[in-house]
UniProtKB/TrEMBL annotation:
PANTHER family: GLUTAREDOXIN-LIKE PROTEIN C5ORF63 HOMOLOG. It holds the Pfam family Glrx-like. This is Glutaredoxin family protein. The lineage of its organism: Bacteria, Bacillati, Actinomycetota, Actinomycetes, Kitasatosporales. InterPro entries: Glutaredoxin-like, Glutaredoxin-like_YDR286C, Thioredoxin-like_sf.
């Protein structure tokens, strides 16, 4: 197996996706969005948002935790997003 395909191998932050799961009118979601936009913007990572009020499955799974942040589809954080922790997750450092 190629060393680049090994589990835990570093990925280029520009190849990473940060997903914010939240809902309209959520001030914690607004705070999380600001951190995500700053870090992802600096690193070139993709950002997407999902609205739990528009997705029943996301609502059932995350309604008590929003905002929820996923990195490449895996839950990274919820409620509050720590800038340094997100940066580390995206850079593998």
């Amino acid at each position: 197996m190629s060393p680049l395909l090994r589990r835990g191998a570093r990925k280029d932050p520009a190849d990473r996706t940060v997903t914010l799961i939240g809902k309209p009118g959520c001030h914690l979601c607004d705070d999380a969005r600001a951190v995500i936009e700053k870090v992802a913007g600096e690193l070139g990572s993709r950002v997407e948002e999902r609205d739990i009020t528009q997705d029943e499955e996301l609502y059932r799974k995350y309604w008590e935790q929003i905002p929820v942040v996923l990195v490449d589809g895996e839950q990274h954080d919820f409620w509050r997003v720590d800038e340094q922790r997100l940066r580390t997750a995206l850079t593998g450092g």
